[in-house]
Amino acid sequence: MTKRVLLLTQWFDPEPTFKGQVFARELKRQGFDVEVLTGFPNYPGGKVYPGYKIKWLQREIVDGVHITRVALYPNHDQSAIKRVLNYASFAASALFYGLFMAKRADVIYAYQPPLTVGLSAAFMRFFRGIPVVLDIQDMWPDTLRATGMVKNPKTLNRVAAVCSWVYRHVDRVVVLSPGFKRLLVERGVLSEKLEVIYNWADEKALETPSGQLPSAFPGSDKFRIVFAGNMGKAQALDAVLDAATVLQTRASQVCFVMIGGGVEVDRLKARATELKLNNIVFVPPVPMAEVGTLLHAADVLLVHLRKDPLFQITIPSKTQAYMAVGKPLLMAVDGDAADLVLQSGGGLVAESENSESLVLAIEALQQLSNDERQAMGARAQSFYRDYLSLPVGVGKFARIFNDI
């Protein structure tokens, strides 16, 4: 008998997410009946996307997947109160729908963050007896502390207590790295309840370059290092500007291409202007369908996070996208993410928030021949295909869903 899965996630296509329509479609392909319970798209800008209007309930079918959208308060700025309203409003709407309106599922898959999604799923489990698989993408309260979103120790302790309650009241917990698993075991979660499943990329969007490069994108006479994604405090991109300053004084052909949005973009642009950097360009966010074009045009793809114990056990999702396109990686993140790149042979690593280490790694990559860099990228792509790809990851989820 076909198992029915309720995918509970605050963020879903057309919002940028790695566990969105791609995940739902692949689950359906592997034999599951899928309903998505999500909100109205407003991330990351906090404004409702064109073509959508907030109402109590909206249903649509995309690629055979039933998508139910419920009301929320759209917001994603730096105001803690507004962000809490955003999280809580979706959690309340989703819980009401899940308890009183949703067709009974065999298993609930809950995507966390935010923590409030895990809370809603745990209550659905309690009242309806449906097993829950919780997929933790951000470790709370660690992320709140590391990003500076919450600084009050008492508040952080309360969040930690809620996390522990949620972990006790779900059936399985999936994490994205071995370090996440070690940390949760230290916090009392049973090891047998935990499973590591690495994230995958939107492979179809990345397969073949389509569309034109933005006019600001540097030409092939430059050594193009591309960073794509959110530019927030967690990314600590001042180190990249510092590296650009050093390389500019050396008349290097390196040019950094920073693609995306985020709360730090305007400040970073202003600092680049102040430093008179002509070897860094900022490109606005582009749709996922066009990201592949920009990544394929790079010589090297950069990942950078601030130096923090949390990020030593984090594997940023862009890592998998970079590997999937078959380009060399420059991993400026300490810990599990660096280990993954070294294991694959698909790039070099640099110390996080260390511009000198970044420069040394960049110059080492620059000194390789084109053939050597192509071989490095091919190794990254092969590793992705064998261990991190969509069919591999969803197959692991499918086994969990069938087991419980």
CATH hierarchy class name of the largest domain: Alpha Beta
Mean pLDDT comes to 93
Main β sheet profile: 8 strands, mixed
Q: Indicate the CATH topology of the largest domain.
A: Rossmann fold
Overall radius of gyration:
21 Å
- Principal-axes geometry comes out as globular
Query: What's the number of extended β-strand segments?
Result: 14
List the strand order in the largest sheet.
3-4-2-1-5-6-7-8
Uncertain ranges:
none
Question: What's the helix count?
Answer: 15
Strand content: 15-25%
Compact summary:
By secondary structure, this protein is an alpha/beta fold. It has 15 helices and 14 strands.
Characterization of this structure:
- With 404 residues, the chain is α/β, with parallel strands linked by helices.
- It has two domains: 4-200 and 389-403, Rossmann fold, CATH 3.40.50; 207-387, Rossmann fold.
- It has 15 helices and 14 strands.
- The chain has helices at residues 21-29, 80-100, 115-128, 142-147, 153-168, 178-186, 203-207, 238-249, 265-274, 288-296, 318-325, 336-344, 355-367, 370-388, 390-403, and strands at residues 4-8, 33-39, 57-62, 65-70, 107-112, 132-136, 172-175, 194-196, 223-228, 254-259, 280-283, 300-304, 329-332, 347-349.
- Strands 3-4-2-1-5-6-7-8 form an eight-stranded mixed sheet. A six-stranded parallel sheet has the order 11-10-9-12-13-14, with helices on both faces.
- Strand 10, helix 9 and strand 11 (280-283) form a beta-alpha-beta unit.
- The chain is globular.
- The two termini are 14 Å apart.
